[in-house]
Design brief:
Largest sheet: 5 strands, parallel
Strand content: 15-25%
CATH architecture: 3-Layer(aba) Sandwich
Distance between the termini: 34 Å
Helix content: 25-40%
Number of domains: 1
Strand order of the largest sheet: 4-3-5-6-7
Radius of gyration: 16 Å
Length: 138
């Protein structure tokens, strides 16, 4: 028999949950995620996206999707204050923010001052008014 291919991506949570993607699966998922960013979020090549996410599989998926679509991926940490986040969104002229359903409530106070922000993308199972859900769009 043939030896199975090594995974392109292998993530294990603190609780032992595993996500393994082959190169084919990562390619397919990243194409779909790039389409979500381009179509549902209305982003174009050169636009900037700020992601404030824990290191969940979607963090890497969106990073690859941004490379595919020519979108600039700006990682942020959950330790940013509302003032820090607002400044970075304005300075970067970010058109989209991506965060988890658990971090979204804390980030929303920084969003009204951002004049460039067009879309908000949520990673997780939850939903919020005014936010698109990545899982549903994939």
């Amino acid at each position: 028999g043939r030896k199975p291919a090594n995974p392109a991506f292998w993530w294990v949570s603190d609780g032992g949950e595993e996500v393994k993607w082959s190169f084919e699966e990562l390619g397919s998922l990243s194409r779909k995620a790039a389409n979500v960013l381009s179509e549902a979020c209305g982003l174009q090549r050169g636009d900037r996206v700020m992601a404030v996410l824990p290191r969940v599989p979607e963090w890497w998926l969106l990073n690859v999707a941004c490379m595919r679509a020519g979108i600039v991926f700006i990682p942020g940490t959950s330790q940013l204050t509302a003032k820090d986040l607002s400044y970075r969104l304005q300075a970067a002229k970010a058109k989209c923010i991506i965060t988890s359903d658990t971090l979204a409530p804390a980030l929303e106070s920084a969003l009204p001052g951002s004049q460039f922000l067009k879309s908000k993308l949520l990673v997780g199972r939850g939903s919020r008014d005014g936010w698109l859900n990545l899982k549903e769009l994939l």
